[in-house]
Amino acid sequence: xxxxxxxxxAAKRFKVTGxxxxxxxxxxxxxxxxxKTKKQRRQLRGTAVxxxxxxxxxHKLLQK
Length: 64
What we know:
36% helix; Ribosomal_bL35_CS; 3 strands; single chain; alpha+beta; 64 residues
């Protein structure tokens, strides 16, 4: 049976941490900042960890 391929779209968007958690960029950060508060904009910087129920699905996409 052939090897499974990694989903390339997912590989570009998600990274696996050393402990197996998956991190990604936050949503709602590309435009329309005038409608968001300063606090919202500050908290959307950086990366977020994917919630536990979705981790198994993302691992399948990333083949890890």
